[in-house]
Design goal:
- The chain is mostly helical.
- Strands 1-2 form a two-stranded antiparallel ribbon.
- Helix 2 packs across helix 4.
- The protein is globular and about 40 Å long.
- The protein starts with 7 loop residues before the first strand and ends with a helix.
């Protein structure tokens, strides 16, 4: 049993998941100090924690995107514009060198989109 304190560093969460699953993860040094909080009303199994870990990005971004678009019609995040992506990346993450819609750009665009919603809805 492991308890993750609120506002734990992301690398602690990744280390915990790695120790439970015996899987390795690559974590950018720019993301290592990002803070995370996990909440569950009941204890979860290792398999449930791993599934939540794998799907957390999808749930967080999708949920925040729907909420943002409901509250702010017509103000969706423009992830097709490299300058917008660069302006909204979390501190310490450099803008992607690639073109829109290559894999590296898409990862950065997702990070920027999450940061855009997080700073407006959760600040």
């Amino acid at each position: 049993k492991v308890t993750l304190k609120p506002d734990s560093e992301l690398h602690d969460l990744v280390a915990w998941i790695s120790s439970m699953t015996c899987k390795r993860f690559i974590l950018s040094s720019a993301l290592r100090a990002q803070k995370v909080t996990l909440v569950s009303p009941t204890p979860v199994t290792a398999a449930e924690a791993y599934r939540a870990f794998l799907h957390a990005r999808l749930l967080d971004v999708s949920t925040l995107k729907i909420l943002w678009n409901d509250l702010n019609p017509g103000q969706a995040f423009d992830k097709d514009t490299p300058a917008v992506v660069a302006d909204h990346l979390p501190d310490g993450i450099a803008p992607p060198p690639g073109e829109a819609h290559d894999a590296y750009y898409d990862i950065h665009a997702s990070l920027a989109e999450m940061n855009y919603y997080r700073t407006r809805l959760l600040a």
